[in-house]
Each structure stands twice: as structure tokens, then as C-alpha cells.
Amino acid sequence: MNKIYLIFLILGTFLVSSCGYNDMVTKSEMVQKQWGNLQSAYQRRLDLIPNLVETVKGEAKFEQSTLTEVVNARAKATSITIDPSKSSPEQLMAYQESQGQLSQALGKLLSISENYPTLQTNASFKSLKVEIEGTENRIQTERNKYNEAVNEYNSFIKQIPQSFFAGQFGFTPKPYFEAEKAASQAPKVQF
User: Fold this and answer.
1) Residue 78 is assigned to a structural domain of this protein
2) In whole numbers, what is the pLDDT of the chain averaged over residues?
């Protein structure tokens, strides 16, 4: 009887180790790490916005609605939080929409500022503009890295033999960041 238990113990150990549980945990943690990196990039942008708004306020007198739009978009973007271990495609879409609205508001603010020559020569504005451009590039890089981590994780849990065990251990596919619907249209540049 002890030999049967020993055989089942060895077989069970083999099945659990061959199902890739540890690899699933590692890949899931990588997705969460990349989500944290992406959140950090978004936070950097949110931290820069008050400085940009105050700089523009001090140098330019233009539509109050533009500043209000930026402030409101920032508030909306900070009100949505996602737990990457329990994220759904709908949650990610809502998060992306709020971040997209913030990107649009910042773009409008930067483009309107071009009509104000004193603002363009302001060193602090130039510095903030460079910081925002760099931050947007960081965000894009982190989105790509997040999607790569999600791809690796999702592919792994769907492969045999992991696919037999992933659901039983609570490993489900993670959603990707996707382009906004408006991104398929070329932006119009008007002077």
C-alpha cells in the first residue's frame, strides 16, 4: 500500500512540476511588474501637469476652458484604478479612455500655447514641454512592455500542459492595452 502512495506522490509531484505552475507565477508577476511600471509612467505625467498648467497660466491669457479641460481630464485619469491581477478588458478600456482624454487635453494645451510667443520663449515652459514629450514616450514604451509581458503570460498559460492546470490554479488571460478607436485616423494639423 505504501508503494501505491509513493507512486501517486511521485506522479503528483511530476504533474504539478510539469504543469508549469512556477513559470505561470513568474509570468503573472512580470505582468504585474510591467503594470506597475506603466502606472509609474502615468503618475509622472500626472505630476507634471500642475506645473505645466501653472506655467501656462502665468504666461498666457487664453481660453480658461482649455486649462479646465486639462485639470478635469487629470482628475478623471486619477480616479480610475485597476488591480492587474483582477483586471478585465472593460476596466482596461475605461482606464485607457481616461488616459486618452488626458493626452488629448495636453495636446490641445501644447498646441494652443504655440500662439503665445512669450510662452514659447519661457525656459520653464520649454523644459516642461520636453518633460511631457519624454513622459509620453516612456508611457508608450511601458505600454509595449506590458503588452509583451501579457503576450508571454497568455501564450504560456494556453500551451499544453499548462492549459490543463492554469484555470484550476486561478491563472486566467490578462487584457492587452489596445489603441483607441480614434488612433486609426490620421490627426489633422491646421495652422
Assistant:
1) yes
2) 75
Is residue 60's pLDDT more than 60? Answer: no
pTM for the predicted model, two decimal places: 0.58
How many domains is the chain built from?
Answer: 1
Asked if residue 4 belongs to a domain, the reply is no
| Residue 161 counted as domain residue | yes
Q: So what's the pLDDT on residue 22?
A: 84
Residue 56 in contact with residue 109, Cβ under 8 Å?
Answer: yes
Distance CA 36, CA 31 (A): 9
In order of 52, 108, 153, 166, 174, the CA distances from 158 in angstroms are 45, 43, 9, 8, 12
In a domain, 186, yes or no: no
Top-confidence residue, 110 or 63: 110
